[in-house]
Amino acid sequence: MYIYDHHDKTLLRERVTQFRRQTESFLAGDLAEDEFLPLRLQNGLYIQRLAPMLRINIPYGMLSSNQLRKLAHITRTYDKGYAHFTTRQNIQLNWPQLEEVPDILAELAEVDMHAIQSSGNCIRNITSDEFAGISTDETEDPRPWCEIIRQWSTLHPEFAFLPRKFKIAVTGSEGDRAATQVHDIGLQLVKGPSSEIGFQVLVGGGMGRTPVIGTVIKNFLPAVHLLTYLEAILRVYNRYGRRDNKYKARIKILVKAWTPEVFTQKVEEEWLRAKNGPATLTDTEIARAKSFFTAPAYEKNTDCPDQLTMPEQPVAFTRWCDRNVKQHKTPGYCAVFLSLKPTGVAPGDVTEQQLESIAELADNYSFGEVRVTHQQNVVLADVKQKDLPALWVEAKKMGFATPNVGTLTDMICCPGGDFCSLANAKSIPVAEAIQRCFDDMDYLYDIGDVSLNISGCMNACGHHHIGNIGILGVDKKGLEFYQIQLGGSAGSDAALGSVLGPSFFASEVPEVIAKILQVYVDHRIDGERFFDTQRRIGITPFKECIYAKAA
Amino acid sequence: MQKLLDKDGNVLSEDPWQIMPRGFDGMLNSDHMLVPVQYWLDTLPDSDANSVCNDQHASGIWLDSDIELEPLADHISTWDCIGIHFQTFMDGRGFSLARLLREQYNYRGELRAFGNIIPDQFYYLARCGFDTFLLEDYSPDFDPLPYLNNFTVSYQGSVDQPQPLFRRRT
Ligand code: SF4
Questions:
Q1: How many angstroms separate the CA of residue B50 from the nearest CA in chain A?
Q2: What does the angle CA B132 – CA B137 – CA B141 come to, to the nearest 5 degrees?
């Protein structure tokens, strides 16, 4: 994990001082509301429906047990004892007091955490793959590059007042787990002709009102040019992105309006002027960044029985292993999902006790570190296989062992109408109704991998466009309805869903999902995942079944 | 009250420049009139424009944030002062223009931010190459220093410090 030195620590302390001054002058009436607004947003502070909301960055998803304990302490001391993991590897507090936010930031700074640029029209938290450094399909560990980008983008003087928010994701794997194709910039680490490292650069992906899959604008960018190239993209966007209409202000609209060819041309021209300038990465810096993300001290020869079993509850344990345990590139090790999706809890919500528990599990089983995922779960990345039975017992006690990772009830859900002032409809109660309806684990296993994503409005924080099943809250004459989409995917086969047809009442949603799954079961060919069947047969059979007139 | 500040936090008692309004088409009666760039282009000695004719040519111009710099490339180094007008403080284009002027066009004269800017932008403006800020409503007890001196560390290179931290880290 990246370790802050005195430069990094000083910068965070200075940021806290700055925000304290801004908050105090706002509270004293010396700073106007509209001037404070972008300043507080650049520190992750929204004013929500019920209270302020503070979004804290978890850069590329990495958290130490120390940081988890600090987060637990903060939710206990300054909030109502729980927090919420978001779909972009951040964590949110829903009830902080504005006056106390500077103190919260000071506490976070003690453990090298911050909320810098976690909202606002600037470069946001850099996200990545939760299996970085441990997956078998990885070309290169994305985390050193994420950290390099994090530093470059932090308090960047030129790009603090962009036309709109700007999100960058990096992946080093073929099975893209960072949804790079739906980011403003998606970076995919690739190897060049003589095995040198570089990036395939995608631009203009995104969700929201106008979902778009990103376009490749550079097939191979040698790694040393990463920052000069990013700076060129951002400068072109800063100068030419639309500022007259916030719904047309994202970079995807500019890329579309200009065509990708013209956009690419413009970026190249800009880049050629700054290429090889001081922002060109040095070997020393690359080596320094990499030195923080080396493999932990894995034990050699952790002899592991081929078949791990738990004599008392064999089926439950096996299921948990099937769904929540993932392959690791190091023999004898595995990655374990802690599911934050038990029925009855808003997806991604954690209590302060749970944060403490996660820290404890991390210390006991995974070198004191965890990763948070954009599916709103937590991963222990370096668990000895032979520890699995013991870990399972503990995780179960703490409520993290719901064996549903990757299944229908492991859904992504935004805070929606219960918390968010932009919402058209509630999303958490719909998620819960679905979880209650599909509580038969046998059925869920039989259905297998399917992603279900719920957003409370077109802003798409719940990523409904890229769910195999997407649910979008819509408002019709003051009533809440839900539109259902099929065919989305977040991975390397990224795709945007299509609308099934007229929308439904909340109470109808679980039944509609059941019908959708039935169509899949009726049509699937052995071993086919929901997404594959749906793609093969199209949307029509689903439409026919769901909107069939009663005979 | 309007007041001019420099990037070191000094309040300047006198502003040598007089900013001429958009659409200005009068005569130049001093060499310290900061004219809209269009006026300057219209009165270029070798231009065929015949609307205005002066003996004197302005030595300072101001730009809107959506300007293209390339057509001005040959003249940039001849100006003593370039103002960049911020229509609203949320319009970040001026930050890019400033860096371009400094880093691509090697402009060395005074670079001034005016219009709707807020003190919390001083630091970023200074980093991007601005020398002076014209504040629209300045109160005598306002202290600009906390806005300019807040940070001693920056990660990325910019005009004030072209070397990024990774080339300086010890
Ligand atoms: S999708 Fe809409 S309702 Fe949900 S969190 Fe985002 S803005 Fe709020």
A1: 33
A2: 85
Question: Among residues of chain A, what percentage have pLDDT more than 90?
Answer: 86
Domain span including residue B74: 3-168
Rounded CA-CA distance A72/A56 in Å is 13
- Greater pLDDT, A428 or B50: A428
| Burial of A341 (C-beta count, 10 Å sphere; 0-12/13-18/19+) | buried
Taking the CA of residue A121 and the nearest CA in chain B, the distance in Å comes to: 9
**Helical (H) or strand (E) element with A201:** strand A197-203
Domain count, chain B: 1
Least confident of A100-114, A285-299, A301-315, B54-68: A301-315
The pair of structure tokens assigned to A76 is 């206990």
Q: Is B161 on the interface with A (CB under 8 A)?
A: no
Q: Residue B16 and residue B33: Cα distance in Å, rounded?
A: 9
Residue A374 pLDDT grade (very low, low, confident, very high; cuts 50, 70, 90): confident
* Chain A CB within 8 Å of residue B164 CB: yes
Q: How confident is the model at residue A457 (pLDDT cuts 50, 70, 90)?
A: very high
> How much is the average pLDDT of A325-354?
93
**Interface contact B157-A154, CB threshold 8 A:** no
Token code pair at residue A51: 């209270």
Task: Write the DSSP string, A432-494.
Answer: HHHHHHT--HHHHHHH----EEEESSTT-TT-GGGSSEEEEEEEETTEEEEEEEE--B-STT-
Q: For position B44, what pLDDT does the model report?
A: 75
- The whole-model pTM stands at 0.94
Phi-psi region of A244 (alpha: psi -120 to 50; beta: other; left: phi over 0): alpha
Q: What are phi and psi of B18, to 5 degrees?
A: -110, 120
For chain A, which residues make up each domain, given as ranges?
A: 6-110, 143-290, 315-398, 412-547
SS3 A311: coil
Q: Label residues A277-300 b or e (16+ Cβ within 10 Å = b).
A: ebbbbeeebbebbbeebeeeeeee
Instruction: Establish whether residue A86 lines the binding site of ligand 1, counting it when its CB lies within 6 angstroms of any ligand atom.
Output: no
Closest chain A residue to B69, measured at CA: A239
State the fold for domain A143-290: Sulfite Reductase Hemoprotein; domain 1 (3.30.413)
Residue whose C-alpha is closest to residue A411's, from A469, A442, A451: A451
Q: What is the DSSP string of A226-286?
A: HHHHHHHHHHHHHHHS--S-GGG-SHHHHHHHH-HHHHHHHHHHHHHHHTTSTTSPPHHHH
Output the pLDDT for position B47.
52
CATH number, domain containing residue B29: 3.40.50
Chain B residues near residue A162 by CB distance under 8 angstroms:
92
Cβ-Cβ contacts under 8 Å for B37 (sequence gap 6 or more): B61, B62, B63, B67, B72
State how beta strands A215-222 and A197-203 pair: antiparallel
Q: A6-110 — its CATH code?
A: 3.90.480.20
Confidence label for A313 from pLDDT (cuts 50, 70 and 90)? confident
A415 CA closest ligand 1 atom index: 5
In CATH, the number for domain A315-398 is 3.90.480.20
Which residues of chain A make contact with B97, given a CB cutoff of 8 A? 239
Compute the distance between CA of residue B77 and CA of residue A192 in angstroms, rounded to an integer. 42
Residue B54's pLDDT is: 47
- Whether residue A282 and residue B153 make contact (CB cut-off 8 A), yes or no, is no
Pairing of the two strands A52-57 and A45-47: antiparallel
Choose which CATH entry (3.30.70.60, 1.10.472.10, 3.30.413.10, 3.40.630.30) describes domain A412-547: 3.30.413.10
DSSP state of A542: H
Residue-level pLDDT at A174 = 86
Query: What SS3 class is residue A34?
Result: helix
Strands B81-86 and B60-64 come out as parallel
Residue A472 CA to ligand 1 centre (angstroms): 10
